[in-house]
Amino acid sequence: MTEPAETPDPTDARASAPEADAAADDRSLADVLAEFDYSFPQEQIEQLDAYRRVLWEWNEKMNLTRHTTLEKFVTRDVGDSWELANLLEKGERVLDVGSGGGVPGVILAIIRPDLDVSLCESVAKKAQALEDIVQTLGLDAKVFGARAEDLLEVTTFDTLVVRAVAPMRKLLFWLAPRWDAFDRLLLIKGRNWVAERGEARHYSLLNKLELRKVAEYVTRGADAVSVILKIEPKEQD
């Protein structure tokens, strides 16, 4: 199989330069969570606050996130992770592919401690940052400094979750030989998902797979619409 040619992914948040910080915000994370109708136990709010602090500290050394205001952290990072959390069963083995700064994997490990969460990041310095973040927060999550397709040669998972890593066609090309190592793929995508699906079909990457839109939501405080796509092998007759 010939790999599809590289093209920019307009929905890839990590590909953009970090946005400028907003003016000083005297609200707490708890205030902003409440403002956007997110409710978590106090212990989880404190963990989320500790996470965004250490993430932003690391972000001064390397580009891990462009969501460097409380409002963006809540509406984009917590929001996407919360939507994913609603689709995961208790005890699932979840791999965050291309975890970057830890979204959604770290947040899933905080708000869904019943999950067995692993983080996969192929860029060594980012994997080191993730390891520090996980250790600082005392989370029971594993960090793998490897490409997902290599990790899946030796480890199995129930669900792979992916946000802002690459176009659908490239993800499916990378993962095509590894479907025996996981059950399903959950992709967070933006407005361009239909075009991405068409491109994946053009390269025959969905022939043996079933794709369903399992969630659609508007980013709170904005007009951006996101979807979560579930991709899994078609049932054999």
From TrEMBL:
InterPro entries per UniProt: rRNA_ssu_MeTfrase_G, SAM-dependent_MTases_sf
Region entry Disordered, spans: 1-25
Statement: the UniProt record of this protein carries the keyword Metal-binding: no
GO MF, any single term: rRNA (guanine-N7-)-methyltransferase activity
GO cellular component: cytosol
Residues annotated for S-adenosyl-L-methionine binding in this entry: 98, 148-149, 163
Cellular location(s): Cytoplasm
PANTHER family linked to this entry: S-ADENOSYL-L-METHIONINE-DEPENDENT METHYLTRANSFERASES SUPERFAMILY PROTEIN
Protein name in UniProt: Ribosomal RNA small subunit methyltransferase G
Gene this chain is encoded by: rsmG
